[in-house]
Amino acid sequence: MTVPQNIDKQLVKEELVLAIQRFIERQFIVAQVIKDLGLHLDDMEQFGAIAWGWSPERNLHTFQQWAIESNDADTQVYFYISRRSSKRTIQQRGTWIDVYNQTWEYFLHGRGCDITNTETGEPIDWDCADINAFDAMFFVEHLQWQLQQVELTEHLSRTKGWLFTRNEFSIYKLIDELKEDGVLIQQGEKLKVNK
């Protein structure tokens, strides 16, 4: 590979924004997996793993008594979500087939889900519930995959050249610059493209 000598950082940042937008579009697949498993995105965001998996070691009856006695609305909602999840038989790991008959492996974690396409190896990790917000670490993992895809190489040629002489941490620095430029906005732990 021939390394371009003077890579324009601004052009790399523009490519990154397009790669981020591509990643955000792909997050919809993760949301669909979660919904198809019968889970609620808002519950997963607020309650994490309790929304999708009730541990059999926990005594639901004791928890119910405690929730009633506490007379605290948040605790009672937490119990309601726990009771609902205790009736599910959702596996933390499994496979899911999308509408295009592609198979994905999924792994539920805390407030989100990590999926990987079994044919292409595409990784998409997302935490609920704002589908338009993304985690920089999850994006960088997806960007590494994007950079390996022949059909996307043309759209990421400057980024590929940029990374040829730098490591992935330079991408995080560019993401910070995009925040400083007002292109990305921080929203809690996540980022959004400023439209």
Could you give a short description of this structure?
This protein is of the alpha+beta class and 195 residues long.
**Looking across the biggest beta sheet, what order are the strands in?**
1-2-3-4
Provide the low-confidence segments as ranges: none
Mean pLDDT: 88
User: Sheet with the most strands?
Assistant: 4 strands, antiparallel
Distance between the ends: 35 Å
Fraction in helix: 40-55%
Number of helices: 8
- Secondary-structure element sequence? HHHHEEEEEHHHHEE
Given helix and strand content, the structural type is alpha+beta
Q: Which term fits the overall shape?
A: elongated
- Beta-strand portion reads 15-25%
What does this structure look like?
By secondary structure, this protein is α+β, with helices and mostly antiparallel strands. The protein has a domain at 1-39 and 104-190. It has eight helices and seven strands; from the N terminus they run H-H-H-H-E-E-E-E-E-H-H-H-H-E-E. The strands form two sheets. The protein has a four-stranded antiparallel beta sheet. A three-stranded antiparallel beta sheet has the order 5-7-6. Strand 2 (103-109) and strand 3 (112-117) form a beta hairpin. Helix 3 (60-70) packs antiparallel against helix 4. 25% of the residues are buried.
What is the secondary structure topology, with strand pairs?
Layout: H1 9-36, H2 41-47, H3 60-70, H4 73-86, E1 93-97, E2 103-109, E3 112-117, E4 123-127, E5 133-134, H5 136-147, H6 150-153, H7 157-164, H8 169-180, E6 184-187, E7 190-193
Antiparallel strand pairs: 1-2, 2-3, 3-4, 5-7, 6-7
Helix pairs in contact: 3-4
